[in-house]
Amino acid sequence: MSAQVINGKEIVSDYRAQIKDQVASLQSKGVQPGLAVVIVGDDPASHVYVRNKAKACEEAGMYSEVHKLTESTPEQELIELIEKLNGSDKIHGILVQSPLPKHISEERVVEAIEPSKDVDCFHPVNVGNLMIGKEGPLPCTPAGVIEILKKIGADIAGKHAVVIGRSNIVGKPMAMLLLREHATVTVCHSRTKNMEEITRQADILVAAVGKAKMIKSRHVKPGAIVIDVGINRLEDTGKLAGDVDFDDVLDTASYITPVPGCVGPMTITMLLRNTLEAAERAAG
Ligand code: GUN
């Protein structure tokens, strides 16, 4: 039987409508949530992402600023901008788009962001809070995956969730959020032996590898929920493809996310949620 393709558009538009209402309600109390997005250099894909983030903010009724800095901007200048944004009452969330040019330390830049405004959840304080289950921003892509699972009515507690990938942005925090939902979690990565044997045990399989169409039906247990975090541009056609070979897995999984159009826009939705919640906390 064919898997149900998760309707990302519907989930995202419902969620954003809800956020828009909450923004309006906060605004009626005199606070408009504000996001500052900073981009350094001229990577075209990053500029598209940044535009989409600022547009989503405005559509939700939030204030947004985009700061475009040239490739040769010194690290200190970027840090001074962040410090200015840390002190701005209009700004509740600060996002510095990665990747940054090689001469700039991502670590120093992330640590310059005031943790309460770190809507990516990249700051070590927020990463630590995530580990111990303390309130704070949640990492956008993994939080979006959890919301998608909840929306389709997946019963996460007690299920075996396998995450493929161990990046700081997705794989590791994804494992942590699934654990919070009481899943039994396994993380696979490039050094994992017999990966197929492990992924075939997954009730919930999350692919976050960055390799187009790597996950085939032989990796998937019949009836598993498959969430594809990958966004890869195919060299031959220029089209976008996930980490999952969608057509191959379609008849094995019970649910599958399309790429593009599900995890990507849900990630931006979680950025809006983090910005709204930061504004709510600042409003007291
Ligand atoms: N570059 C690619 N994805 C992301 C993200 O989620 N946040 C930031 N800041 N940069 C990115």
Overall average residue pLDDT = 97
Tally of strands: 11
- By helix and strand content, what is the structural category? alpha/beta
For the sheet with most strands, the description reads: 6 strands, parallel
Number of domains: 2
Intertermini distance:
51 Å
The CATH class of the largest domain turns out to be Alpha Beta
The SSE string, one letter per element, is EHEHEHEHHHEHEHEEEEHEH
CATH topology of the largest domain: Rossmann fold
Multimeric status of the protein: single chain
Portion in beta strands: 15-25%
Outline, from the CA principal axes?
globular
Bound molecules: guanine
Low-confidence stretches: none
Biggest β-sheet: strands ordered side by side in the sheet:
1-11-8-7-5-6
* Helix count, DSSP H or I runs of 4 or more residues: 10
Describe what you observe in this structure.
Helix 7 links the parallel strand 5 (160-164) and strand 6 (184-188). The protein has a 6-stranded parallel β-sheet. The protein has a 3-stranded parallel β-sheet with strand order 3-2-4, with helices on both faces. It is α/β, with parallel strands linked by helices. The protein has 10 helices and 11 strands. It is globular. The model has no long low-confidence stretch (mean pLDDT 97). Guanine binds at residues 95-98, 120, 140.
List keywords for this structure.
284 residues, alpha/beta, Rossmann fold, six-stranded parallel sheet, three-stranded parallel sheet, 10 helices, 11 strands, 41% helix, binds guanine, methylenetetrahydrofolate dehydrogenase (NADP+) activity, oxidoreductase, EC 1.5.1.5
